[in-house]
Amino acid sequence: MLIIHHWDTDGIVSAVLAIKALNLEDFINITPPIGEFRFDNRIWKEIEKAEKIYVLDLNLPQEVENIEKETIFIDHHIQKRIKNPYVKQINPVLDGRDFPSASFVVSEYFSLWNYLSALGAVGDIGERAFSIKKVLELLNEKDISKEEALKLVQLIDSNYIVMERESVEKSVNVILELEPKELLEYEKWNKNVEMINNAIEDAISNIKVKDNIAFIEFESKFNIISKVARKVVWEMSYDGAIVVNKNFNGKGQIYFRISSNLVDKIKMNEIINTLKSKGFNAGGKKDVLGCICDKKEIDEVLNVIKKYKC
């Protein structure tokens, strides 16, 4: 069994939920290159060897269309219907339903709900997840406070933010083996968080604001771009954030996040589709867009975003 999952908390806990639901002992879990929405050679080699494949929390229908083995594709991002007959696509968005996380879709599909289902939601929508009754119920079952849930997400996410793909993949087994209170004290993840927080503060020091939308440019080898955007929109209460890492390990990285105030005004799906039509590696959902490109293409991506933003 091969499980291909996103590198963030939602993707990781979705993988753990699937493993638990299927009672798997023999499995391989793998994530794409961090920050890149594609399957690399390493993934395709594992696909060749696999008997059955699960793709979780990865908005990569273009890659899934090319898999010629039994595949279960579970996601909650905006995407088209898969035409590949080998693929069973589980995505409530296709039926007009909105789920806070892939973990919720996985839990519904397998009828398995626990604190990990809630963590995925907290990972994807932050403190807004606590307004969901189911999230609070699941956290309370494990005696996990809101503060502890946020800390667990921060710790799990730290693996991808410091760009350690192997650590992301290993985190699935760590979560399978340890209880939540043990995860909170996991030394390696706590050291990661300390380094990350320093990098985020440095990035936000370069903030510029127009019409209550923040614009931030910085350079970092850490994948902190989404964390910077979330902090600016969720904690600093800006309507939106356009964040640019001008040198993300030799690439350009752009992230656009908007608050609920702008979801009906800015059609994020149209921006994503426009970027894709121009050949850019972009993805997202109704309130967020992520794109990685050549450094020389950053301005072109920003011009597309600004056109729709206006």
TrEMBL record:
Q: Where is the DDH domain?
A: 2-111
* Top-level division of the source organism's lineage: Archaea
- Pfam hit, one: DHH
InterPro entries, sorted: DDH_dom, DHH_sf, Nucleotide_metab_enz
Kindly provide the name given to this protein in its UniProt entry: Phosphoesterase RecJ domain protein
